[in-house]
Specification:
The complex is a heterodimer of chains A (504) and B (363).
Chain A (H helix, E strand, L loop, with lengths): L4 E12 L2 E12 L3 E5 L6 H8 L7 E6 L11 H6 L2 E4 L11 H6 L10 H14 L15 H14 L4 E5 L7 H16 L3 E5 L3 H7 L2 E6 L2 E7 L5 H9 L3 H4 L15 E10 L5 E6 L3 E6 L5 H9 L4 E8 L2 E3 L4 H6 L2 E4 L3 H5 L6 H13 L7 H14 L16 H14 L4 E5 L7 H16 L3 E5 L3 H7 L2 E6 L2 E7 L5 H9 L7
Parallel strand pairs in A: 3-7, 3-8, 5-6, 6-7, 12-17, 12-18, 15-16, 16-17
Antiparallel strand pairs in A: 1-2, 1-4, 8-9, 10-11, 10-13, 13-14, 18-19
Helix pairs in contact in A: 13-14, 13-15, 14-15
Chain B lengths: L1 H12 L4 H24 L6 H26 L7 H16 L4 H10 L5 H27 L4 H19 L4 E2 L2 H7 L2 E10 L5 E7 H19 L1 H11 L1 H6 L4 H27 L1 E2 L7 H11 L11 H20 L5 H32 L1
Antiparallel strand pairs in B: 1-4, 2-3
Classes of the chains: A alpha/beta (504), B mainly alpha (363).
């Protein structure tokens, strides 16, 4: 049995100034197995991965490979690579200015010179092998994010690694791409590679994994065989709460939208990124844009918010015609937008939680009229409490919070402006089940209080639970609008796939 | 058998990279400008010697620009190079004319001939460049101090050192300058003078050194792992680290090479002028930065090409001679035109890159 083991981590401890990130965590990976690493945000998954790849140094514990008992020390990603440990991170960690082939080979090719021909040939073969739609000589920056991710995996695959770490690899991929990735993972498994699979998607874990290790608050909960652990139990273990609390949010009895005041109406709205479309939302309504990745759902809401350059169309708020050409116009009209790209468009990582929370309100009020410190603290405190943001203090830089809590900070920022209309673009992506449920509940509560909300999510189930009307998009066109009885997973899928059109 | 064919067709279809695009633009603009100068002003511009004069006068600038291109590709900056060039030139000239006292003692102790002073001047140049590269590289790469501040300090230090070594301008002895200023005659590119006698085109040794350095740096950037690491670090430092690039060492090497090249540039400068002066190579660092940018190197890092830099220097110096030739002899006209051209180039680059990238997004 011992020979099966490719990686053992024992008693790993790691502390950061404010928090104990890992507390005596054990982890064992076997040859030819896909081992899922699960846990809520802040549970210590990322820290464990970073310790393993030499990004962080551990305070205590030992790492052994190849089933031996000799602890090795990994001080840099390069050393990790030398030990056969490769990682594909959630954020693309490649260089966009280099070619695809270079990105696959840089930093790990011996020698002082670059053999372009050999490198491009090898890259071309590997890409073809794995069915990745990229050309070796292509500049990486010109590939889509999904393809870039696959190039990162191709790089890892090419290293003949014994341990492959996939850190949230599926969060930016659509279903076909995910299927392709899984095929690849199974192929690698059959070649005897041990794969550590970090993800938030429970279904995906059950689809490909053999084993599961669960972490909670930096501590090890346990290691399980997938077949012995039903999904509900896994969730319970991850969040450490009883199942009742998790109970699916009940489908609320939704009042008819007829007779309700139309809050926002757009006719023929278009931006540089979208085709013209019509859209409206009533007061207190929750609706959503759905469709495959890249179908234009984010672009549509960006047009509503004025985040992309608006090129035409008429917009009315509460019956009055308004012009929304830039985000500030939207904000002044009581529209809030929580962007898809949390890191790029949302948080300002170096600013404190407090400053991030008051940011939007400050902008609306004008920079010439700063809030007093006491007022800012009052606001921050109110929302840290209301949304249960886990932070050491309101002075903590947002960058050091976990993903879910960062998301809550942005949410707090918009709630503070008391918008009439709030757009949430993938608010639950990459955050744990517990927080997800909280956000869904919050959305419904806000709608009850009269706020209109547009909700976008890759998880159809989540949309069905929260939205009373779904606008379905395909290839940048609105292809259907579903409500009431039609709100079933099956129906949505078929509309997306194009089997069924509105009116037919 | 089908696969290679497919590869070939893929090869041809590949769109050019940003680096290549910017390089093409630079070369086109240089050629356009030079041809325009030939047509409008004729005279000097029609003689090949004009081009060689541009090279002769700017050989040192080509060399420091090569160094700056490397540093800028890694996303860093070095503004000490002008100072280093001047310091090296002053030290070198004083070694040549025998007024550098510590060196005189060594010379007397070893009983060397006058000619060997050239070797010592070269050694001093390399040593000063190396010292600058080592110290600045260490501070920037390993202690992670802002490169702008470190090299600003380096610039002041170098300028200060020049005045400490000698307050008065120094001149190298003519006997040694005759050796240093050896010119290479290129008869077939000559042109007749007023009396109708063919004067061959003349190129200084410094130009040969500069062109060799351009070739070496080109090979470094294109063919060596280290060169590609420069690009990776400049493209995304965090990613480069994750990809297993030794980021600190790479940044260190960039500054080291830049320092050494600044030393060599100082020696070439001395070969050309034979004079040591506190105001030598004033604003050379700014001209080098401007040349690199005109040549398609982005200040943000990750994109750049040394051939472009060569053409950047030529473009910049052509602008200056055009300004002079057109009768605006006051130096500020050169500055104003250079400024305007730089602005134009950067605008052009951003517009081209922006259009290209939004184009990619849509397709």
């Amino acid at each position: 049995m011992e020979n099966d083991i490719v990686l053992t981590m024992r008693g790993i401890c790691k502390s950061f100034p404010n928090v104990k990130a890992l507390d005596h965590v054990d982890f064992t990976l076997r040859k030819g197995k896909i081992h899922a690493l699960m846990g809520e945000n802040g549970a210590g998954k990322s820290t464990l991965i970073k310790v393993l790849t030499g990004v962080y140094s551990m305070d205590e514990g030992e790492i052994c490979i190849d089933g031996t008992d000799h602890p090795i020390s990994i001080r840099s990603p390069q050393e990790a690579q030398n030990y056969g440990i490769s990682t594909v991170y959630q954020e693309i960690t490649l260089c966009p200015n280099l070619t695809v082939a270079e990105n696959m080979f840089i930093g790990r090719t011996p020698g002082k010179t670059v053999d372009w021909k050999a490198m491009e040939k090898r890259a071309g073969e590997q890409l073809e092998n794995l069915g990745i739609p990229a050309r070796p000589r292509q500049q990486l920056g010109s590939c889509s994010l999904a393809v870039q991710q696959m190039v990162a995996i191709a790089r890892a695959v090419d290293t003949d690694c014994k341990v492959l770490i996939l850190d949230e690899p599926t969060s930016s991929l659509d279903d076909t791409e995910v299927a392709m990735l899984f095929r690849l993972m199974r192929e690698l498994r059959s070649r005897g590679v041990g794969i550590i699979f970090v993800t938030h998607f429970l279904e995906q874990v059950y689809e490909v994994s053999d084993q599961i290790t669960v972490l909670r608050n930096g501590e090890l909960v346990g290691e399980y065989e997938v077949k012995d652990l039903p999904q509900v139990e896994l969730v319970a273990k991850m969040i450490g709460k009883d199942l009742e609390e998790l109970a699916v949010i009940k489908k609320q009895e939704r009042t008819d939208e007829a007779g309700k005041e139309i809050l926002y109406q757009a006719e023929g709205l278009s931006s540089t990124e979208t085709r013209p479309f019509d859209f409206h939302i009533a007061k207190g309504e929750v609706n959503g844009f759905t469709g495959l990745l890249g179908s234009g759902r984010s672009e549509s809401v960006r047009a509503i918010f004025g985040a992309d350059q608006v090129t035409g169309g008429k917009v009315a708020m509460k019956g009055k015609s308004v012009k929304i050409n830039k985000p500030l116009d939207a904000m002044r009209n009581g529209i809030g937008y929580l962007p898809e790209d949390r890191k790029g468009d949302g948080i300002i990582a170096d600013l404190s939680v407090r400053d991030n929370i008051i940011l939007a309100l400050q902008v609306i009020q004008g920079m010439g009229h700063p809030f007093s410190r006491a007022q800012a603290e009052e606001f921050a405190e109110e929302y840290i409490k209301a949304l249960e943001i886990k932070t050491a203090s309101m002075e903590t830089p947002v960058g050091s919070l976990s993903g879910g809590n960062q998301q809550k900070v942005i949410l707090a920022r918009w709630l503070l402006t008391h918008p009439d209309y709030l757009i949430l673009d993938e608010p639950t992506r990459g955050i744990d089940v517990g927080t997800k449920t909280e956000i869904q509940k919050l959305v419904l509560r806000l709608a009850e209080e009269g706020m209109s909300i547009t909700f976008i999510s890759s998880e159809i189930e989540e949309m069905l639970r929260t939205c009373s009307r779904l606008i379905v998009m395909r290839d940048r066109n609105i292809v259907g609008e579903l409500k009431g009885e039609e709100l079933t997973q099956d129906c949505v899928m078929r509309t997306i796939a194009g089997d069924r059109r509105e009116g037919n | 058998m089908k696969a290679p064919e497919k590869n070939l067709s893929q090869r041809r279809r590949e769109p050019i990279t940003d680096t290549q695009l910017l390089l093409t633009i630079t070369i086109c603009i240089f050629v356009f400008m030079y041809v325009m100068a030939m047509v409008v002003w004729g005279g000097g511009f029609l003689k090949p010697q004009m081009l060689f004069d541009l090279l002769n006068d700017n050989a040192f600038l080509i060399i420091i620009s090569c160094g700056l291109t490397i540093v800028m590709i890694t996303g860093s900056i070095d503004i000490s190079v002008g100072g280093v060039t001047a310091l090296v030139a002053m030290t070198g000239v004083m070694i040549l004319n025998g007024s550098l006292r510590p060196f005189n003692r060594i010379e007397a102790a070893l009983g060397l001939s006058e000619g060997s002073r050239i070797v010592f001047a070269l050694l001093a140049a390399l040593l000063i460049g190396l010292a600058y590269g080592l110290v600045q590289g260490y501070l920037i790469a390993y202690l992670e101090i802002q490169p702008f501040i470190i090299t600003l300090a380096g610039m002041f230090f170098a300028r200060g050192m020049i005045t400490i070594i000698s307050v008065d301008p120094q001149k190298a002895p003519q006997s040694l300058m005759n050796i240093l200023q050896t010119r290479i005659d290129i008869p077939f590119l000559g042109s007749p003078n007023k009396k109708g006698v063919m004067i061959p085109a003349r190129m200084e040794i410094g130009v040969v050194i500069a062109l060799i350095i351009v070739v070496l740096v080109f090979i470094l950037l294109r063919r060596m792992q280290l060169g590609r690491h420069f690009y990776a670090v400049g493209g995304n430092r965090q990613s480069a680290l994750m990809l297993g690039v030794n980021v600190r060492r790479t940044r260190f090497m960039a500054h080291l090479i830049c320092g050494i090249l600044a030393g060599i540039a100082g020696f070439v400068f001395m070969m050309h002028t034979g004079a040591g002066n506190a105001t030598n190579a004033t604003a050379a660092e700014m001209n080098a930065i401007a040349s690199s940018i005109i040549g398609g190197t982005l200040l943000t890092g990750g994109v750049g090409n040394v051939v472009g830099t060569l053409f950047g220097v030529l473009t910049l110096s052509t602008i200056k001679s055009i300004v002079t030739t057109s009768g605006l002899r006051d130096p500020w006209w050169q500055s104003i035109t250079t400024g305007a051209m730089l602005c134009f180039f950067i605008l052009l680059q951003s517009v081209v890159l922006m259009r290209r990238h939004t184009g990619n997004k849509k397709s």
